[in-house]
Design goal:
single chain; 482 residues; alpha/beta; 45% helix; flat
């Protein structure tokens, strides 16, 4: 699922918050320099000024547009805009003092010092923030983009994407659609696929977004539609029909290009902020609960099956990004090696997930001589979903969300067909749509995909809340394991 860019002031909320912080830092520091270590908010005159300059700063930003194009402009232009903003705050502050007829009681030195300090700190903080946005190359914080174009446009398209990269995007590869150039390098970016294998590449590699640029897109329309079928966000350079596949579409700027963006769904800045804030809050609370549960489960697990208390496994997350998922260990040591021997008993068709009616690998599970099945402590932990609690650490890290789709193992993911990849279009979750609509009782993988795709297409914050409440009810009823 795509995070829609904010319009208007919301897309610069970070600069706005930092600017206000610089203003109040300047206000406090100037007061301390002039009057000593005394609380400037303690007197009515200075407290009133603090409130007014806050309002004046916001008014100046909106009326003068001093944050318009803030990421793209040069350092010289930035200083000019910051100076204009500072003058606006200064003159409005002077006007305020005259209007309340108490200018003689307010220190002129403090006002001038505040303006100078504000100019310097605000300018430096803006430069730092822009540098952090443009030059943050950590793969954890950047989206992976694949450029799909033709050989005649490739060099210009790649150069444009790299030169105008303001959106935390990492151009990880190029696919040339009209000829085989796999293995070559264009502007420092490798050519990783051609028209015949780009679908396979996107299906089994970490690709958050695809950028397409064609002089004539008609011959490649089927290719673009197949990307959308996989749930991949597609940015098309704007010369295409804007109504296909019934997907969410919007026109926006991507690295300097005007594009038509197609995605299975998208979230605006406020929705993304609330979802992530909820994940952080829930993840922190869940980690505390995990610590408490650990005290009781650790000795039980260790004495029942000596070995590590926690179990980690590589899983495939949003858009193919791999991560380590954590659980309390409920299986005997070496359980993964026994999986192949048990595949014939897999209840899920096509082996794209693995579920057994009674898994002998689980700690304490035994099949008695008379054929009866005895459940062990590991099964008890699973029935109560206690083994899932360490995943709150994954939520806190940002690898997972409280609500999403269950992340597949690498071997399951390698068997995916195109439409199966759509369930990776959103961050994986501890719980989700199919877990609260049958959980392990669902044995048809296509039904899992349908429910997960339905969740992504219909996603909203209220739906997440309903799934969370329903999850609690499902766990207490012990309707299968998560």
């Amino acid at each position: 699922m795509y995070k829609k860019k904010s319009n208007g002031w919301a897309k610069h909320v970070d600069f706005l918050a930092l600017d206000l912080a610089c203003l109040h830092f300047s206000f406090i520091l100037s007061y301390i320099i002039r009057h000593g270590f005394v609380n400037p908010y303690g007197t009515q005159l200075y407290r009133g000024m603090a409130i007014f300059v806050t309002i004046a700063d916001l008014v100046g930003m909106f009326l003068l547009g001093t944050l318009n194009g803030v990421v793209r402009r040069s350092n010289y232009k930035e200083f000019a805009e910051t100076f204009k903003q500072t003058l606006a705050v200064f003159f409005l502050a002077v006007l305020y003092l005259f209007s309340i007829q108490e200018s003689y009681e307010y220190s002129r030195v403090t006002l001038f010092l505040m303006s100078v300090i504000y100019l310097i700190t605000s300018y430096l903080v803006r430069i730092w923030r822009k540098y952090a946005i443009v030059h943050n190359h950590s793969s954890k914080h950047r989206r992976s983009m694949l450029a799909v174009t033709t050989s005649d446009l490739a060099r210009d398209v790649v150069a444009g994407l790299l030169q105008n990269n303001y959106d935390a995007v990492s151009l990880t590869g190029i696919a040339i659609a009209d000829r085989d150039m796999t293995g070559s390098v264009i502007e420092g970016v490798p050519v990783v696929a051609g028209a015949d294998n780009v679908i396979e590449y996107v299906c089994h590699e970490w690709v958050d977004e695809v950028f397409t640029a064609f002089t004539n897109p008609a011959p490649y329309q089927d290719l673009i539609d197949r990307f959308a079928l996989m749930g991949v966000t597609v940015h098309e350079r704007l010369n295409v029909d804007a109504d296909r596949l019934g997907r969410k579409q919007l026109v926006e700027k991507v690295n300097g290009y005007t594009v038509l963006t197609t995605s299975i769904n998208y979230a605006n800045t406020l929705q993304s902020f609330i979802k992530r804030a909820g994940d952080i809050l829930g993840g922190a609370l869940g980690c505390v609960m995990t610590g408490i549960i650990f005290i009781f489960l650790a000795p039980v697990i260790y004495f029942s099956s000596p070995g590590p208390i926690f179990f980690s496994q590589e899983r495939v997350g949003k858009n193919g990004k791999r991560f380590k998922m954590y659980k309390f260990r409920t299986m005997v040591m070496g359980a993964d090696g026994l999986k192949k021997e048990l595949m014939e008993q897999n209840r899920v068709k096509d082996d794209r997930m693995f579920k057994m009616e009674f898994d002998p690998r689980i700690i304490g599970n035994k099949i008695l001589p008379d054929g009866r099945k005895k459940k062990g402590v590991g099964q008890f932990i699973r029935d109560l979903s206690l083994d899932e609690f360490p995943q709150f650490f994954n939520v806190l890290k940002g690898d997972m969300s409280l609500v999403g789709t269950r992340p597949p193992t690498v071997d399951e993911w390698e068997k995916y067909e195109l439409h199966h990849r759509a369930r990776l279009a959103i961050k994986p979750g501890i719980t989700g749509m199919w877990q609260v609509n049958g959980r392990s009782n669902i044995t048809d993988f296509e039904e899992v995909v349908r429910l997960d795709t339905q969740y992504i297409c219909e996603w909203n914050l209220w739906l997440d809340l309903k799934i969370l409440f329903k999850t609690v009810a499902v766990v207490f009823k012990k309707e299968g394991s998560m």
